[in-house]
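Continued from yesterday's entry.
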Amino acid sequence: MESSWKGILATLVVVAGLAASGSSYKIIDGPKNATVLVGWEASFNCTVSQGWKLIMWALNGMVVLSVTPKEPIITNDRFTSASYEEGGNFISEMIIHSVQPSDAGLIECRLQNSNLEGSAFLSVQVMGQLLIPSENLVVVEDERCNVTCRAVGWMPLPDLSWKIGVSASHSSYYSVWEPDGLQSVLSVLVLTPQSNGTLTCVANMKDLQVQDALTVNLTVVPPHLGSIDKPHTSLPAWAVALLAVSFSLLFILIIVLIIIFCCFCVSRREKKAAVAELENVRLLGFCFFWAFVCSTLAQDKSV
């Protein structure tokens, strides 16, 4: 109901403005270009001479706010109005709250029943993220290393730089734009560190005095600790001790297995020997039996 009433009121105002032809009012000073971040407020001023009936503010060709001498006609809460008087002239201010990327474009201040207008352009920038692979970096003293910082989701892409909080015999950096469709830029810091400290990647927004930063810790280790993974280098003491204990346990285990195997073989051999001896006894008994039988038969024939 309230929106319908506002629509009717706006129509009446426009009709009243059309009837006021021939007036000498004009736009003295139009709005100025502005650049803001997403979520910020953007404001534009339009100065007109006395006698005006209706001021209309348009965004990309669509009227978003109307102002009458009595009150503004607000149809969207994100677009509000303020007014001032200066030197006998009227200043209308349009305020865009919580600016969105879709708000970027042409801003126009129009007077009803006049072909005069003032225009400006609204640029909307987006602050994305800064990404460094690790929050705690460990590098080898006096050895060259690369540290990367990626800016993702920024519009437009920021300028990247580094703040170096460590002692280094050499440091330089360069940035490359990545063709991955993610709107990202990569900065590579080439460093030869000599002490512990911090590294800070700084992103500066273009056209705005705004920046974002990401800091990581850098730990420098001596060359003999940092060369574990390199060929022809010695292992640290703890690794040598661990290997010694492991080989000792393995050697003991092998000895135990050999003893068990030998006992098993001896047991099988003894068992086989016992079985063979039993077979020999049985065979000898069998032979004695037949010898006795044969001897008995021979005696009977002789009798």
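--- second protein ---
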Amino acid sequence: MAEIGSLPLFLETAVAAAKRAGEIIHKGFYQTKNVEHKGLVDLVTETDKACEDLIFNHLKQKYPEHKFIGEETTAACGTMELTDSPTWIVDPLDGTTNFVHGFPFVCVSIGLTIGKVPAVGVVYNPILDELFTAIRGKGAFLNGKPIKVSSKTELVKSLLATEINLLLRIGKRLPVPQMSYNILMANCIGQDEFLKVGTKRDKSTVDATTNRINGLLFEVRSIRMSGSCALNLCGIACGRLDLFYELGFGGPWDVAGGALIVEEAGGLVYDPSGKDFDITSQRVAASNHHLKDAFVKALGKSA
């Protein structure tokens, strides 16, 4: 199809948008932030909104016939729909809490799906000036140089990244036709329950989340939490990290760019249960081929 032949041009456009948004992030990183709350602890800044507007305007000028999904616009509207049409999926500032606190793991994430399959991925950290890119079938790159996942074969020698998302359990799976923005299958490895997005820091919820991490500590070398799903995926892609999983992240904008970059770096992206990855599920795991089976088993034991 025509869109596939245009992938290099799509990548060029996405990189230009990410770099322009990165300039705004870099400038704002060293200034006093005007911060709003999307929940008890979830933050959004003027920079998030400005970057999303800039990126969408840039992309829409080039490709007005394409569809667009963004974190801030979806949060405002409450719904999203991913179709087979070419769709740009954007997180204008992944790692907003890091941004607010001056912790330099923040990035722009831009992914293009065609037929609901990621075809172009861009993740740019303007503070460290690291640009991760990929086109399906063409490999993955960091600042223009090819990258590959690690070659680790044992969990005990592997570095694991994850994030803590404390979510409210609201009941068993329901036969709904389409998942809305604030309802997801997230906290249970076996996907048998729905959860509602939002921080809930009562003891039982915290214990359930930390007990899983406690169990995994016996299986791996060490654990890291960077505060950015997209950058964690890129860490897998370039071999800095060996294992990654996250349950209950915000939406497809967190993974649309990074998931393709992992795959094009020779890695695997999958559901933490071991099933196929679903970009809309808000559940992700990633590793090299050698570690997948053992990692899925360890995740199941720790649930």
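The first helix runs from residue 2 to 5. The chain is about 35% helix and 25% strand. Will compare against the first tomorrow.
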